[in-house]
Amino acid sequence: MNLLAVLFVSFLLFAIGLAVILVRRQLLFVLMGIEVMTNGAVLAAVAAGQYWHSADGQVLSLFMMLVAGSELAITLLLAMLSYRYLKVSRIDQMNQLQDKLDKEGQLL
Amino acid sequence: MTDALVTLPMMHHLLWLIPCAPLLGALLIIALDGLPTRAYGVIANLAVLVSALCVALLWLSGSWDMPVQTAYEWMHIDNWLLDVGFRVDRFTLVMASVSAWVGLLIHLFSTQYMRHDFGERRYFAYLNLFVGGMLLFITADNLILLYAGWEIMGLCSYALVSHYYTKDENVYAGRKAFVTTRIGDTALAIGIFLCFMQFQSLNLESIFQAAPQAPTGMIAAICILFMLGAFAKSAQFPLHVWLPDAMAGPSTVSALIHAATMITAGVYLIARTHVLFDLVPDVRWWVALVGAFTALYASVSAIGQNDIKRILAYSTISQIGYMFAALGVGGYSLALFHLAVHACFKALMFMSSGVIIEIYHHDHDIRNMGGLHKQQKFLSFAYLAGSLALAALPLVTASFYSKDAIIAATYTADHGAFLAGLGLLGALLTGVYSMRMYFMVFTGKARSEIHDYKMTWAMKLPLGILALGSLCLGFIQLPDSWSFGPHLLLPWLEPVLTSVALPEGHAGEMLELLGAAAAVIGILIAWPLTKAEVRSGRGVGNIGFLNKALYIDDLAKVLVIRPFLALCAVLGSVIDGLLLNGVLVAGVRRLMLNAAEVVSRGQGALVSRYVLLMVLGLMLIIGYLTVQL
User: Fold this and answer.
1) What is the fold of A3-93?
2) What does the domain layout of chain A look like in residue ranges?
3) CB pair distance less than 8 Å for B593 and A105
């Protein structure tokens, strides 16, 4: 199998995931973007393992899936809580910690 | 003469008391709160009395040949030393006597005159400070101390002229006096700097000793600057504009300013530094020219005035002009003589005018007065003495002896006939306006209601003494050409002030006769002039050209004040409004805000933007590393 092609697909996944994160404002889509990026990275790890004939790549990918799964559990929980308490599901509205200035430059 | 009547060896340790007693008095009046108002008057009087007694003791002890007292060492920088020192010579002594004693009489008069007036405590504090400043100025033995006294007087004149500060125009008059004299103050300060630059010393005595070796250009520059200072302080043309407006203050203040302090300071300054002026006769001649011209100009202006105090103001300008004419031809002792005489009659007239104005219910216009002689005999005779002295009636009044000597002395200078001519013409007009004022106020029928006014001894005594002085002071120094009678003052002053050449023979006699004739003719003109004015209701006061004093003040407004205000407006809108406020202040603020906005947009609580920045940062780092490797 052509390594470059696999790596290209993995980079494509990573880039698509990144683009989703940068462009989408829905929290769930952002989380999906993160997953896509992780998958891109996992694919690269597997491809590398295959290339060097080493089990390390597959071990690494298992760990990464585990981490991604745990992370997803927590972030989904957070997403649900934020929707419940803040009534928002968009990340551009989750900015309650920012300092807002009025036209005169004073803190609101 | 040098035989001491009383031996007081300690006297030269008491010199500091002469200026410091009134200064202390002012301090006491300011510091002691809650006393009854009369007490402040008493403190003020006592303070000046101490000074006056010290001066009297100097006379009695015969210590007039340069007692110097160094009160303490003020500054000592490397080997340069500045002391707070006082010194008295014959010239100083005469001047200090005039200031202290006339000042005392004015204080005494004020206690009744200002009673139940407005702001008595403030008035007395400043009055004391004023006399203190003048005496400091007179007795100072170095230029710094002299300048300090000079400035104290500037401050006090401002404060006292705008004494009735609730009216806008009075405050304006105070400001005008302050700002106009400030021109002279600045000139004097620069002159003092030049003195220090040239002589490395500010002590008068060492400056005088080093002066003959100094370059003439430098001396001339110093003298011109001192001259400007004196012109502004002594209200000489064209810096006289502040004086007629300075009548806004109480009449006693005018008396003090015109007779004992302030105005005479310019005369004193030039006479004090006459050693320098003697070295540059060309510069000195200009003093004479300005003086003689001012004498004529001011008496022309005085004729057209209806306000009694403005007549007196212009008469002062004119009389001081004579003193400057005398200074300019080297007749320093003549100037001093006339100064003393002038102090007597001008203090007398100003204080009386205060009473007259009260009697006519605060109306200053002499056209609304008249007929006062029957009601106020004493006041009338005192004022007559003053008016005649101002007009210089021959033989019986003091200023005949002082003023005519000045006119005679100017004749000997370059272009002397011209200077003397100005002086004689001025003398003629002086007779006219002086007696017009007297006739308008005291003779004829009353043209408005006359209020009762009882003068106590505290008012009559000063007026009496001053009236006596106005008439008799001249007898201490009869004209040189007279072989009889006392010639006390000028020869006595000669060691300090040098003497001036008077015209010999026929020219001298001619001038004497002309001077006497000018005064008499002036007085004789005044009588029909006044009668016509009273009868027709129109007179010289209605001539706008004279009444506005040849429009010099308005000219100054157009030429100086208006451009200055325009410049202020331009600077205000361009520099202040646009450059400072618009660009600098608002611009910096705008810049900060915009920058802050840019930075804060980076952390605008948008997660995706953080990620973008993170990615960009990562790419930068990777790109950098790639390039490096």
Assistant:
1) Helix Hairpins (1.10.287)
2) 3-93
3) yes
Q: Are B605 and A97 in contact (CB under 8 A)?
A: yes
Please list, in sequence order, all residues whose beta carbon lies within 8 angstroms of the beta carbon of residue A107, skipping any fewer than 6 positions away.
A99, A100, A101
Record: contact B612-A105, CB cut-off 8 A: no
* Exposure string over B508-544, b if 16+ CB within 10 A, otherwise e: beebbebbbebbbebbebbeebbeebbeeeebbbeee
- Residue B189: CB atoms within 10 A of its CB come to 16
* Other Cβ atoms within 10 Å of B611 Cβ, number: 16
Indicate whether B315 belongs to any domain: yes
Cβ contact (<8 Å) for B596 and A94?
no
Q: With contact defined as beta carbons under 8 Å apart, do B319 and B235 qualify?
A: no
Locate all alpha helices (DSSP H) within A3-91, ordered by sequence.
3-23, 27-52, 56-86
- Give the separation between CA B261 and CA B55, rounded to whole angstroms: 16
Query: What residue type is assigned to position B613 of the chain?
Result: L
Q: Is B159 within a domain?
A: yes
ipTM value > 0.85: no
Close Cβ partners of B256 (under 8 Å, ≥ 6 residues apart): B103, B106, B127, B130, B131, B160, B262, B347
Residue range B438-479, pLDDT digits in tens = 888 888 787 777 778 787 888 888 888 888 888 888 887 777
Nearest residue in chain A measured CA to CA from B604: A98
Backbone angles phi, psi at B237, to 5 degrees: -55, 135
Spell out which chain A residues touch chain B, with contact meaning CB-CB distance below 8 angstroms. Answer: 18, 21-25, 30, 91-92, 94-99, 101, 105
Cβ pair A21:B611 closer than 8 A: yes
Indicate the number of domains in chain B.
Answer: 2
Q: Is residue B552 part of a domain?
A: no
Residues of chain B with C-beta less than 8 angstroms from the C-beta of A30: 607-608
Are B588 and B451 within one domain? no
Token pair recorded at residue B166: 């609730």
What does the pLDDT look like over B127-164, one tens digit per residue? 899 999 999 999 888 888 899 999 999 888 888 888 88
Domain that holds residue B618: 557-628
Residue B1 lies in a domain: no
Q: Do B383 and B252 sit in the same domain of this protein?
A: yes
Shortest CB distance from B615 goes to which of A18, A25, A99?
A18
The per-residue pLDDT for B433 is: 87
d(CA B220, CA B280): 6
Q: Which residues of A fall within a CB distance of 8 Å from B604? A: 95, 98
Q: Are B152 and B249 members of one domain?
A: yes
Are B453 and B589 contained in the same domain?
no
Q: Are residues B575 and B455 in the same domain?
A: no
**Per-residue pLDDT band at B63 (split at 50, 70, 90):** low
What does the mean pLDDT of chain B come to? Answer: 84
Residues whose CB falls within 8 Å of the CB of residue B479, separated by 6 or more in sequence, listed in order? B401, B404, B405, B408, B512
Q: Does B622 touch chain A if contact means CB atoms closer than 8 Å? A: no
Other Cβ atoms less than 10 A from the Cβ of B224: the count is: 16
| In a shared domain, residues B590 and B500 | no
